[in-house]
Design a protein that fits this description.
This protein is mainly α. It has a single domain, classed as Transmembrane di-heme cytochromes, Chain C (Fumarate Reductase Cytochrome B subunit), CATH 1.20.950. Helices cover 61% and strands 2% of the residues. The chain is globular and about 55 Å long.
Length: 241
């Protein structure tokens, strides 16, 4: 969520620290693990779901894997939130993923560009409004998934503290939120990072840590030409560790 300013190295603009790269890779693995093990239970009547459940060793194994991935996802989200909070509070990291008025203006500018009204798309800072939208959708949606998932995992314990109707509502919320997150990530985020003609066949910045040269030509980059002196050690959030 937060980190120090991006920096340049050998003419390339740094976007992600090594820690953030590892964090994102873990999120990819856990997201698709949860999607596969969860959606095959939601659509259990489909042939492909029955094949997946059988390949995983049966419904009990599928549920256990789903629970395990959920626990790891919870740990990943909590460490991200705690590290980001402490980074801003103690190490003065820049809250680069906070939504600002500039993001709304960029979204309007992009709509005008797609309609042919503007000649250029919106200037791109370190993180675009699209990336911030996906970030907050995943973060807030993840919190809801954790809360509803724990309710469904321990319904008897949950019933001690809330009416039974909440458990039924948690089932619908968990299922619907999962579908929403899955479709938006697959349709929007993967398109913008993989199939978008401006970065096709892949924007490699999340794997290399450096801004894709093709993406630097989108709009008018806002990244300062030099934010670190030559030879200085780059610090970007958890990369300092």
């Amino acid at each position: 969520m937060v980190s120090g300013e991006s920096w340049e190295s050998e003419g390339r603009t740094r976007r992600f620290s090594n820690f953030r790269i590892a964090e994102h890779l873990a999120l990819i693995v856990l997201f698709f693990s949860l999607a596969v093990t969860g959606l095959c239970q939601k659509f259990h009547y489909l042939g492909v779901s029955q094949f997946v459940i059988g390949a995983l060793g049966g419904i009990d194994s599928a549920r256990s894997l789903h629970h395990m991935a959920g626990v790891l996802f919870t740990a990943l989200l909590l460490q991200h939130a705690v590290a980001s909070f402490l980074g801003v509070l103690m190490f003065r990291w820049k809250p680069s993923m906070l939504i600002a008025l500039r993001d709304a203006q960029d979204a309007v500018a992009d709509v005008r560009y797609y309609l042919g009204i503007e000649e250029r798309p919106a200037p791109q800072g370190r993180f675009s409004y699209k990336e911030k939208f996906i970030y907050w959708l995943t973060f807030l949606g993840g919190l809801q998934m954790i809360a509803t998932g724990l309710t469904l995992w321990f319904p008897v314990d949950a019933a001690r503290y809330m009416p039974g109707q909440f458990i039924a509502a948690a089932k619908d919320m968990h299922s619907s939120d999962a579908m929403l997150l899955f479709l938006i990530v697959v349709v929007w985020h993967i398109y913008d990072s993989v199939l978008n003609p401006e970065v096709f066949p892949l924007d490699k910045s999340i794997f290399t840590g450096f801004q894709d040269p093709r993406a630097e030509g989108r709009g008018e980059p806002l990244t300062p030409p030099a934010v670190k002196k030559e030879g200085a050690k780059p610090v970007d959030g958890m990369d300092a560790l």
